[in-house]
Every structure is written in C-alpha cells, then in structure tokens.
Design brief:
Layout (H helix, E strand, L loop, with lengths): L3 E3 L18 E3 L6 E2 L8 E5 L4 E3 L3 E3 L3 H13 L2 E4 L10 H14 L17 E7 L7 H9 L6 E8 L7 H8 L4 E2 L3 E4 L7 H11 L2
Parallel strand pairs: 4-7, 4-8, 8-9, 9-10, 9-11
Antiparallel strand pairs: 1-2, 3-7, 5-6
Helix pairs in contact: 1-5
The structure holds flavin mononucleotide.
The site of flavin mononucleotide has 24 residues, from α1, α2 and β9.
C-alpha cells in the first residue's frame, strides 16, 4: 500500500470552504458527452472530467464524483455538458492509477481525449470541473485546454477532492486562459457530492452572484 501526503494549497473559493485546505490528503488506498438543453436559452456549459471506478474514500463508484457535481450544476442552471473522456484509466485499481497520474503530471504529459473538440462559440459561461489529481486537474483536461479558446468568457472552475480543496486548479485555469474572466471557484469533497446538491445550489445562487 502506498502512503503519501499531498501538499495542500491555500486557494480560497468564493464559498470560502477551502479555508481548511492545509489538511493533508493521504493516499491509501472522452466518450465525449455533449448534451443540449433544447428549449431553454442557456449559454452555459459544464466541461468536466470524472473518473468512475476505484476511487479514494468512496470505493468503486459507477458515476464519478465530479460528474455528480456537473449534473447538479446542469439541473440547477440548465447548463449543457461536455465530458472529457479517455479510455486510458479504464478498470484501473486506485493504487496503479495514482502512480500513473503522478507520472503523467511529473512529465507534463497530455493524453488525448476521445472524440472531437467542442464548439464553445455559443457559450458565455464555461464551468470547468474535475477531480484534484496530485494538486491539479488530471492531465487530460490540459490537453483539452490547449484546444479551446475561452477569450472573453466567464470561466468558473470547480473541483472535487479529498482534502486539497481547489489546490492549484483555479490558478492553472487562469494560466491556461489569461484572457478569460476566471471567477467564483468552488470545491467540494468527493465523498460529499451525493448528498451535496444543496451545497452546490448555495454556491450558485448565493455565493456565486
Ligand atoms: C490519481 C488520483 C490522485 C488524487 N490526488 C488528490 C490530491 O492531490 N488531493 C486530493 O484532495 N484528492 C486527490 N484525489 C482524490 C480525488 O480528487 C477525489 O476522490 C475526487 O472526488 C475524485 O473525483 P472523480 O470521481 O470525479 O474522478 C486523487 C484521486 C486520484 C484517483
């Protein structure tokens, strides 16, 4: 069993819930989806990556934690979705997955995603969400970041995590999209998301205004 501590970063989201994010996270343990909200005039989209399968704290899950948050956002706001998908991690147990993810992050690898790059021209607001993997988003998300242009758009980063909060995700989004308005970041524990819709709603309707 691998035991390692992740350093947690002091990035505070607009809901203020990252104030405790100097805790330590301890490792112990594209099919693309683009839905369309025909019938409403939503100009928002949630772009996210989420890993179903063997995961920290929640065990083997059929639906990834971040996807659940993405679904909450879409239900609350009517936002469309684009899921960044790769088969690279299919069926992997947690321990080999964290090793592979560490190697990818250290090498700055950009694994390809499945399918085509989304057309974002019709969207004003782009939510970007993913799990924290070794202090930032999974590398495959950065592959997509290189392919999209968010100049002038409002970009709202969010994470699911097990102790790191936003880690460096929001600042990495700012670096990737210097001409976007990056604001209102949010994080939530992965093990909380299944009962966390009210928290997501509070973020969207109260804190993120
Ligand atoms: C490869 C890997 C690396 C992780 N690294 C961190 C980390 O650095 N900090 C943290 O708080 N959680 C970390 N976690 C936990 C995930 O961020 C957390 O379980 C998240 O909710 C998973 O979301 P998902 O199901 O949408 O993929 C890691 C999990 C995995 C699988």
């Amino acid at each position: 069993m691998i035991v390692a501590a992740f350093a947690l970063l002091m990035d505070t989201g607009c809901n203020g819930q990252n104030k405790n994010n100097m805790e330590t996270f301890q490792e112990t343990s594209l099919q693309n989806e683009q839905t369309s909200n025909s019938g409403n005039m939503s100009k928002s989209i949630v772009i996210f990556f989420s890993h179903a399968g063997d995961n920290y704290s929640v065990g083997v899950i059929e639906t990834g934690n971040t996807k659940i948050v993405a679904d909450h956002i879409s239900e609350i706001t009517g936002a469309d979705q684009f899921e960044i998908f790769t088969h690279k991690y299919d069926g992997m147990a947690y321990t080999p997955l964290i090793e592979l993810a560490k190697e990818e992050a250290n090498k700055g690898e950009l694994p390809p995603y499945e399918g085509t790059t989304p057309d974002l021209s019709q969207y004003d607001t782009v939510f970007i969400g993913g799990p924290v993997w070794w202090g930032t988003y999974p590398q495959v998300m950065f592959t997509l970041f290189k392919d999209i242009n968010l100049d002038g758009k409002t970009v709202i980063p969010f994470t699911t995590h097990e102790g790191s909060g936003l880690a460096s995700c929001a600042s990495d989004v700012r670096k990737a999209f210097p001409k976007a308005k990056v604001t209102c970041e949010f994080s939530i524990y992965g093990h909380e998301v299944r009962s966390g819709k009210a928290k997501v709603e509070r973020w969207l309707t109260t804190s993120c205004q």
